[in-house]
């Protein structure tokens, strides 16, 4: 009987080192996959279905392209700019995140050290119990969805070639700054600003950059702004559902371990999202007499965004409070303030990303500064004694730090996004020409989402077949239309 040769001891040691926690590693890879699915296929489906039919392909492809482009840039240089060694107080040194030796070692995030008078370091580095490869991939899916969220402000008119250039530039010069400053050991990290899972790094930055980009790119055609119906609301709900459940990985993965804090974060995430959706729907019914499905999706998103800065550092009753606020305040800015503001009306933010992400993200960060519970905060924040303002003590300063952190992210994104787009504009037009905007997907990609014609589109016999169109007119009657 043949015997199976034993695996060499050195091979076992290489694949299962003593520091590896298989449970943490399995959860982190699962969480990363959930976050990745929020983008592909989640936002691909949501974007492709929430827009007018003629923009379904372009909108979905903007998301798919960004997901792929960010990954190559991420492992090439951007990961180390966000989570590497210090270059500036708000930026890490660019370097590749490839190579077997690097990816197999234990994950770590240099924190630059938080020193006290006696010379000790409070938080020298963060060292989860899994490989660097897991950390690189987990952080990639966060970077990817941030760029894809920006696309939501630009659907229906941005030149795809300009988008191809914008993605790597914005990732490099904007996203990495926020990620390093708040997560990678930068100055906001050591100042004690709380951004548990990206309320600032991802949502405030995406909403701000999207709004600024929408200004520079310019608006959609007037008729598209006036009437832009979703081409498939059921698929919109499908994409929204993937976004909601994927958020379990979004917030549940940020303790970097399968621990109690992860469980609390997942529960709080769902509580806040559900509360916010219900509040938004109630407001729609109260003031518009109809429960809007798209409105419910927006309420869900604002709830998910609002809880993100504090998901693992607030109690569940606080998640309900945050849900009530996220279902009402962004609703007010979108439905009331937006319609009365000349500036907001001038900027064509296609999906209202400014309201659902910037407003909800700043709101969540501010509420975290008030509601962060001391014990939970001690598990996550590197500054000893951090707590929300409602818990007394040194908590009074936390709210101020949260607002200052949000202002830094907003300010950097306004400047960086403007410079990037003005530079791109020197070589490539930011907006499609009007003739392409009239046609949509077929003019841009030579492809269409559905093998249908109508909705005011011009019928062309060379593309659609015979001059006589036969269809069922109802009750079995055949109707011939001369075109």
TrEMBL record:
Under the heading Pfam families, the entry gives:
Ammonium_transp
Using the record, list the residue span of the signal peptide; answer none if the entry has no such feature: none
Q: How does it sit in the membrane?
A: Multi-pass membrane protein
Q: Where in the cell is it found?
A: Cell membrane; Membrane
Extract the GO molecular function terms from the UniProt entry.
ammonium channel activity
**Which keywords appear in this protein's UniProt record, sorted alphabetically?**
Ammonia transport, Membrane, Transmembrane, Transmembrane helix, Transport
Residues of the region (Disordered) are: 463-483
Q: Which InterPro entries match?
A: Ammonium/urea_transptr, Ammonium_transpt, Ammonium_transpt_CS, NH4_transpt_AmtB-like_dom
One GO cellular component assignment for this chain's record is:
plasma membrane
SUPFAM superfamilies (UniProt xref): Ammonium transporter
Q: Which residues form the Ammonium transporter AmtB-like domain?
A: 26-450
Bias class Basic and acidic residues marks the residues at 463-475
Membrane-crossing segments per the record: 26-48, 60-79, 136-155, 162-180, 200-218, 230-250, 262-283, 292-311, 317-337, 358-383, 403-428
Q: Which GO terms describe its biological process?
A: ammonium transmembrane transport
Q: What NCBIfam families does the entry give?
A: amt
Which family does the entry's similarity section mention? Belongs to the ammonia transporter channel (TC 1.A.11.2) family.
Record-given protein name? Ammonium transporter
């Amino acid at each position: 009987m043949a015997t199976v040769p034993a695996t060499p001891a050195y091979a076992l040691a290489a694949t299962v080192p003593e520091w590896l926690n298989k449970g943490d590693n399995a959860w982190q890879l699962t969480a990363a996959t959930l976050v990745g699915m929020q983008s592909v296929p989640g936002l691909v489906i949501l974007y492709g279905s929430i827009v007018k039919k003629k923009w379904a392909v372009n909108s979905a492809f903007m998301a798919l392209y960004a997901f792929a482009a960010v990954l190559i840039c991420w492992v090439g240089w951007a990961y180390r700019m966000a989570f590497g060694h210090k270059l500036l107080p708000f930026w890490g040194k660019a370097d590749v995140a490839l190579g077997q030796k690097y990816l197999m070692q234990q994950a770590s995030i240099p924190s630059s050290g938080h020193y006290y008078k006696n010379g000790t370091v409070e938080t020298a580095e963060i060292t989860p119990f899994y490989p660097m490869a897991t950390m690189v991939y987990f952080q990639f899916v966060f970077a990817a969805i941030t760029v894809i969220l920006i696309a939501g402000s630009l659907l229906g008119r941005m030149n795809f070639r300009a988008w191809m250039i914008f993605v790597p530039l914005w990732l490099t010069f904007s996203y990495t700054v926020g990620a390093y400053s708040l997560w990678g050991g930068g100055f906001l990290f050591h100042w004690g600003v709380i951004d548990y899972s990206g309320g600032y790094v991802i949502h405030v930055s995406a909403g701000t950059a999207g709004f600024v980009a929408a200004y520079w790119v310019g608006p959609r055609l007037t008729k598209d702004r006036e009437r832009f119906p979703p081409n498939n609301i059921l698929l919109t709900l499908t994409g929204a559902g993937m976004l909601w459940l994927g958020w379990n990985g979004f917030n549940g993965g940020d303790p970097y371990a399968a621990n109690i804090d992860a469980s609390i974060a997942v529960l709080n995430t769902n509580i806040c999202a559900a509360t916010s959706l219900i509040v938004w729907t109630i407001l729609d019914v109260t003031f518009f007499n109809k429960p809007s499905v798209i409105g419910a999706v927006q309420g869900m998103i604002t709830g998910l965004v609002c809880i993100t800065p504090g998901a693992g550092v607030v109690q569940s009753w606080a998640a309900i409070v945050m849900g009530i606020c996220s279902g009402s305040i962004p609703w007010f800015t979108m439905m009331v303030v937006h319609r009365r503001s000349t500036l907001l009306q001038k900027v064509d933010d296609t999906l209202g990303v400014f309201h659902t992400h910037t407003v909800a993200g700043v709101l969540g960060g501010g509420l975290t500064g008030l509601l962060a519970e001391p014990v939970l905060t001690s598990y996550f924040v590197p500054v000893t004694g951090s707590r929300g303002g409602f818990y007394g003590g040194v908590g009074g300063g936390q709210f101020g730090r949260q607002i200052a952190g949000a202002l830094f992210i907003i300010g950097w994104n306004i400047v960086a996004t403007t410079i990037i787009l003005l530079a791109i504009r020197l070589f490539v037009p930011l907006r499609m020409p009007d003739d392409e905007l009239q046609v949509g997907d077929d003019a841009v990609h030579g492809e269409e989402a559905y093998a249908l014609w109508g909705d005011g589109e011009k019928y062309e016999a060379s593309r659609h077949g015979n001059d006589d169109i036969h269809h069922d007119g109802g009750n079995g009657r055949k109707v011939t239309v001369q075109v």
